[in-house]
């Protein structure tokens, strides 16, 4: 009986020893896993701290940019208000100037000189000359406001107050520019018109004083029909940002499109 007990006791000791080793191995593995989890947690916490610091720095940067943008917006608003006040003041001055110009124009209107009156023979009696002038005055008034083109030269038939004296040696500033026709066109279109007498072809210079926008219209004859106009921009002025693409390039259009041309330009100049 005793050997059996000894054998059982030895078996018990081996089982207990093996269980102890298994528990120790399990505890060692658990400690390793816990240390691994702890290290991963510490790394994650450190990464979150760094991300938090980075986001906080970005937030401060955005707040600073927002403050700068708000300050710039206030400055731009102040400048815009000052520019609006200045534009209003200049518009009032321009209206006063136009009113003064119109009053002086209608108080001393320019006289229309007939083109055909120079062709009347001096040998005719005074009464016949007066009758002939009265009969031809409608034709003179009509021809005085028209432009005729010859293949060799351009002859401008306009009233004396609109025509430059090419044979005179006086300065161009002494020419009469406040013609009733020029004033009428200015009131209708809102831009100043003048004739460039330095070119061989008939060339009109158009200026919008409020924006500084200026361009030229050159008469181009066409066989068997109406002539054409060549548009050439000289300066866009303050309309450079709002100007349409076709306003920045040279183009040629028929005289029948003049009304549409000036209507579209007026839509753009009206924004300034």
From TrEMBL:
The keyword Coiled coil applies. Residues 34-72 form a coiled coil. GO terms for biological process: developmental process involved in reproduction. Keywords: Coiled coil. The keyword Transmembrane helix does not apply. Residues 177-268 form the DUF7806 domain. InterPro entries: DUF7806. It comes from the Eukaryota. PANTHER family: TITAN9 (PTHR35489:SF2). This is DUF7806 domain-containing protein. It comes from Musa balbisiana.
